[in-house]
TrEMBL record:
<feature type="transmembrane region" description="Helical">
    <location>
        <begin position="79"/>
        <end position="99"/>
    </location>
</feature>
<feature type="transmembrane region" description="Helical">
    <location>
        <begin position="138"/>
        <end position="156"/>
    </location>
</feature>
<feature type="transmembrane region" description="Helical">
    <location>
        <begin position="394"/>
        <end position="411"/>
    </location>
</feature>
<keyword id="KW-0813">Transport</keyword>
<dbReference type="GO" id="GO:0033300">
    <property type="term" value="F:dehydroascorbic acid transmembrane transporter activity"/>
</dbReference>
<keyword id="KW-0472">Membrane</keyword>
<feature type="transmembrane region" description="Helical">
    <location>
        <begin position="306"/>
        <end position="326"/>
    </location>
</feature>
<feature type="transmembrane region" description="Helical">
    <location>
        <begin position="105"/>
        <end position="126"/>
    </location>
</feature>
<dbReference type="GO" id="GO:0005886">
    <property type="term" value="C:plasma membrane"/>
</dbReference>
<feature type="transmembrane region" description="Helical">
    <location>
        <begin position="162"/>
        <end position="183"/>
    </location>
</feature>
<dbReference type="GO" id="GO:1904659">
    <property type="term" value="P:D-glucose transmembrane transport"/>
</dbReference>
<dbReference type="InterPro" id="IPR003663">
    <property type="entry name" value="Sugar/inositol_transpt"/>
</dbReference>
<dbReference type="InterPro" id="IPR005828">
    <property type="entry name" value="MFS_sugar_transport-like"/>
</dbReference>
<feature type="transmembrane region" description="Helical">
    <location>
        <begin position="50"/>
        <end position="72"/>
    </location>
</feature>
<dbReference type="InterPro" id="IPR036259">
    <property type="entry name" value="MFS_trans_sf"/>
</dbReference>
<feature type="transmembrane region" description="Helical">
    <location>
        <begin position="277"/>
        <end position="299"/>
    </location>
</feature>
<keyword id="KW-1133">Transmembrane helix</keyword>
């Protein structure tokens, strides 16, 4: 019990980072309607500026992935996470004190930078401090806290103005710094830095006093490479194979269309006669939180691959239904070149809208639930498990960079896809990528349930 309490305390301190990250992602949804109508003309956003305000975070996060990959190996997991609080808080200060649109953009880039570092460091920290039997559950808390943060901003945004909401969003990173001050660095990083005595102290904190710390320390030491990483190491299958798996998982997570669907969720709900679009966002956020929590509770029993299979199939079916909805509902199959989804949805005839609007809502709910069950949390967890210790920083950085660049491209180019492929064709393309994700999981993703990080590393060396 002592072990569990201390380990859960360290995990809680770390996942305040993803909570902050979720606040960043969710902030634009309640803030944008106000910023588009604000009295100050220097701060008022038009539709193009609003799009950039929402999506520029992903560019900052992509840069954060590169920075985090460097920091996590140079200064450690704990200090990297604590330093994240600086751009988080600075970004919100810039937003609150903004005098023009460019200051709003800069504040969003800063919070995005912190989010990118956080999305890399926290999964690595949790996987390295966790016991094998609970590593999957604790690793899934990363995504759970992200969606909790998003839901929190949706709810708070119903009552708080945009600048007060920014003040609220700055609290989690402040609390994270205070908690992380009292948490240990990961034993694996300490042993890599030849700090054996400190690693034993860290293990005693995380496992309790009645465990054989020396045995676990020796197990980790057996896998700690003495030589540093160089480019020639990437010719080694034990380095490049897990890197390719991680990068492709992140690529597939985004090309299934989650960010595009979430970005236009309010429009879809409005079309289905939901008058309060903010309440609709809360409903979607609640679905995400519930199913991510379910995934966290069952992942160490079912395994990673099973959740990816189930999630991929649900998402493939729901996006296919979305396409079917647009094919049936839109006049002439929506073959026009108009790429505005709002125009597309509003060209649906009232009679068809009444008969088929339920299909859009059900499809959206299924898609969000399916994503939260597997393809939301599992790629981040697998990323934190499969990389060798010596390449963990640079490989994780490549994965985070891939994820955020693809998030930006899918969100920004969604309208162009609708213009080129039609709305139903775009959702059927997402469905095809969901099917591809299931196939990739079957043939290339290893099951890491019940294995230590050292055993996973040994698997790649042998195979």
């Amino acid at each position: 019990r002592v072990q569990n309490k201390k380990l859960y305390l360290a995990t809680f301190a770390a996942v305040l980072g993803p909570l902050s990250f979720g606040f960043v992602l969710g902030y634009s949804s309640p803030a944008l309607p106000e910023l588009r109508k604000i009295g100050n003309p220097k701060l008022r956003l038009d539709s193009n500026q609003a799009s950039w305000f929402a999506s520029v975070v992903t560019l900052g996060a992509a840069a954060g992935g590169i920075l985090g990959g460097y920091l996590v190996d140079k200064i450690g997991r704990k200090l990297s996470l604590m330093l994240c609080s600086i751009p988080y808080i600075s970004g919100y200060i810039v937003i609150i004190s903004a005098q023009n649109v460019w200051m709003l953009y800069f504040g969003r880039i800063l919070t995005g930078l912190a989010s990118g570092v956080t999305s890399l460091v926290v999964p690595v920290y949790i996987s390295e401090v966790s016991h094998t039997n609970v590593r999957g559950m604790l690793g899934s808390f990363v995504q759970l806290m992200v969606v909790t943060g998003i839901l929190g901003t949706y709810i708070a945004g119903m009552t708080l103005k945009w600048h007060w909401l920014a003040v609220l969003c700055s609290f989690p990173p402040c609390i994270m710094v205070l908690f992380m001050l009292f948490m240990p660095e990961t034993p694996r990083f300490l042993l890599d830095q030849k700090k054996r005595a400190e690693a034993i102290v860290a293990l005693r904190f995380l496992r309790g006093p009645y465990v054989d710390h020396e045995w676990e320390c020796r197990q980790i030491e057996a896998n700690v490479e003495e030589e540093g990483l160089n480019l020639f190491e990437f010719k080694n299958p034990s380095v490049y194979r897990p890197l390719l798996i991680g990068v492709i998982l992140m690529f597939l997570q985004q090309v299934t269309g989650i960010n595009a669907v979430m970005f236009y969720a309010e429009t879809i709900f409005e079309d289905a006669n939901f008058q309060d679009s903010r309440m609709a966002s809360v409903v979607v956020g609640s679905i995400q939180v519930c199913f991510t929590a379910v995934a966290a509770l069952i992942i160490d029993k079912t395994g990673r691959k099973v959740l990816l299979y189930v999630s991929g199939v649900i998402m493939a079916l729901s996006t296919a239904l979305f396409g079917f909805y647009f094919k049936l509902a839109l006049p002439n199959g929506n073959n026009s070149s108009n790429a505005d989804l709002w125009f597309t949805l509003n060209s649906i005839s009232p009679a068809t809208e009444t008969r088929l609007s339920w299909l859009a809502v059900v499809s959206l709910g299924l898609f969000v639930a399916g994503f939260a069950l597997g393809w939301g949390p599992v790629p981040w967890l697998v990323m934190s498990e499969i990389f060798p210790l010596k390449s963990r920083g640079i490989s994780s950085g490549a994965c985070v960079l891939t994820n955020w660049v693809m998030a930006f491209l899918v969100t920004k180019e969604f309208q162009d896809f609708i213009g080129f492929l039609t709305s139903y064709g775009t959702f059927w393309l997402f469905s095809a990528f969901c099917c591809l994700s299931v196939t990739f999981t079957a043939f290339y993703v290893p099951e890491t349930k019940g294995r230590t990080l050292e055993q996973i590393e040994a698997y790649f060396r042998k195979s």
